[in-house]
Design brief:
By secondary structure, the protein is of the alpha/beta class. It has a domain of 54 residues: Udp N-acetylglucosamine O-acyltransferase, C-terminal domain (Udp N-acetylglucosamine O-acyltransferase, Domain 2, Up-down Bundle). The chain is built from four helices and 14 strands. Helix 2 packs antiparallel against helix 3 and helix 2 runs parallel beside helix 4. The radius of gyration is 16 Å and the shape is globular.
Length: 171
């Protein structure tokens, strides 16, 4: 569903397309610049402004009045609070709020509503703590998470997203 006054720019020669997935909800005054990729089941609230080459993965929720810097990635099942200025990648399964934006733990409400098992939620919580609530570097946290945590696809997705970040991940 695309509401009133949304703008969706077509792709440039860089990628050739801008795409919006299935069952998305783009509320009024949303702007998708060129070469943006929006996954499935994404909710984007009023007046969110995306610069070029933004990627929002499946099931993410972006609250209103959020500007998103070019080349930023927002991970699956993540939540971005209203009025937050997003200039770095938001890891999957997390919530990010503020200006400047900061991570505030896992998107526990979204994970619960989506039916994630307690084991998956616990493993994600442990991975989050290793990376963002410890004295280790992000690289050390990733290595320790891979060594100590159960091999769960969601945890691996979380770790790969952070490893693949070009703009950096906020803390």
């Amino acid at each position: 569903m695309i509401r009133e006054y949304c703008t969706i720019n077509r792709g440039t020669a860089a990628t050739g397309k801008t795409s919006v997935g299935q069952r998305c909800f783009l509320m009024s005054y949303v702007h998708l610049a060129h070469d943006c990729v929006i996954g499935n089941d994404v909710i984007v609230a009023n007046a969110v402004q995306m610069a070029g080459h933004v990627t929002i993965e499946d099931r993410a929720i972006i609250s209103g009045l959020v500007p998103i810097h070019q080349f930023v990635r927002i991970g699956t099942f993540s939540f971005v609070g209203g009025g937050s200025r997003v200039n770095q990648d938001v890891p999957p399964y997390t919530k990010a709020v503020g200006n400047p934006v900061h991570l505030y733990g896992l998107n526990s409400v979204g994970l619960q509503r989506a039916g994630f098992s307690p084991e998956v939620k616990l493993a994600l919580k442990r991975a989050y703590r290793l990376l963002f609530n410890s004295d280790m570097t992000v690289g050390q946290g990733i290595a320790k998470a891979r060594a100590e945590l159960p091999q769960i696809p969601e945890v691996e997705n979380f770790l790969k997203f952070i490893e693949g970040s070009q703009r950096g991940v906020m803390v």
